[in-house]
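Lines hold sequence, tokenised fold; shown next:
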Amino acid sequence: MIYKDKKRAAFSNGTADTSTLDPEEVSRFNQLAEEWWKPDGAFKVVHAFNKTRVAKLSQTLPQIMDRDARTDKPLAGLSLLDVGCGAGIVSEPMARLGATVTAVDASERNILVAQKHAGEAGLDIDYRHALAEDIAETGQQFDLVMSLEVIEHVADARVFLEVLSTLVKPGGALGIGTLNRTPLSFIKAIIGAEYVLRWLPKGTHSWRKFVRPSELDDVLLPRGFRVVDRCGVDFNLFTRKWSTIRSMNSTYLQFYKRAAA
């Protein structure tokens, strides 16, 4: 059966010097780079989904860092790394919340589009055409690290998580957004979103590369992280709106805090 769970190469026991780059995935997003900021483009549904996602981030990240989310700049004075930033649809809102944002992506065209859009918006964001491991090699660490809808596109999910864990300062936070590997996610994200509703280009996702929350825990908890918040993000066909929900059977957000030194 198609849902039978097998050990995937994407979640191997690779070593930390293994590249997380998947050339086919990068090529796909290079081709779509110009679509990111088009209201009716290929990522139209992503923008609707992103409003709910950003609202959750805007509340949760300040709370994890003992900040008041009700202030204008609750992330002021905090450094934030957005890994797999695309064209900046999350990086920009985080910069507006006051964070000093560094954002990286494996697609050079995505970075060029992101730089242009941020410049037009008057936002100072340090965009780099780079992988997470490139940043790790510099020894740089951040108060906040987030990687949203990226891990299901990398070559080795375990190595990717290992690298992300090194980028978070002691006492800092890590946010992961991805798709759970369940029958429901196959129906919604593959059959529904790509083939029936055509919200996303066909082939955007591979179900076998989806990651269970427990698989995130398996890598991060032994490295000094603890789960501090989690939720699902779901589309209601009746209201035609996205919202956060308790169930994490499909798309979800999971937040960790690293132990202080």
The two ends are 47 Å apart (CA to CA). The chain has one domain: 20-258. The domain at 20-258 is CATH 3.40.50.150 (Rossmann fold).
